[in-house]
Task: structure prediction
Amino acid sequence: MISVLNSVSQLGAENALSSTQASLQKTLLQLSTGLKINSGADDAAGLSIAAGLGANIAALTQSSQNASNSIGFLQTADGALSQVTSLLNQAVSLATEAANGQLTAAQNTAADAAYQSILTEITQVGSTTSFNGTAVFSAAPVTTFTSDGTVGGTATVSTTTGALSSTTLALNATDLTSVAKATAALTAITAAINTVAGVRGTIGASVNQLTADTSVQNTEVTNLTGAQNNVQNADIGTTVAKMTQYNVLEQTGMAALSQSNQAQQAVLKLLQ
Result:
């Protein structure tokens, strides 16, 4: 049947070509972005899953950074306390020497001056040690907040370094000016060493916990990133193959449309 009003073959060719070109444009967009989901129209469920995974990854990445910052803070405190322990060991030597009772008055005075200098240095360590502009030794706890981006996936690790000075270590009232005072000072210094060791132990436990948490968080980020990639990333090999297919279909579609137009022109020849 020959018709001049409607050409079903031409309409079919136009529709097929339009569909092919739309698919080709979508494929080219996927190749340019590297994503197979570029809008909700592509895959609404997949887009929602990818967004949720992205939120989890962001929370875990920042949580890992939070933990790393706290580890740095606590390691700074531990390093300072290690220095304080060395100072206290020097104080032990001075107090032991003064408690022996064989020093002259001048020697006792010199030993006590050295001892008082150590106490001043301990107080200075406690007041000047800082991390990122924050005093390391304080009664306020060091709090680390972590989250995996879910309501039930939050945790907090708190560690208290405590204030640090000769006063907090109960050494401010001690001196080495006599055998009796040196003996009392030696007892107080030993207690201070134990106190510092206890704080370092607490700090070490927190550092170990935060280090383990960071390792878990980094592993989760790796796994979730892989899952997100599977949901939203384009398979480049498959996408290139589709692009080639649609390019061929576009060319054959245009050829078919041209043939359809020529068939319409044949009608005019019947009227000549």
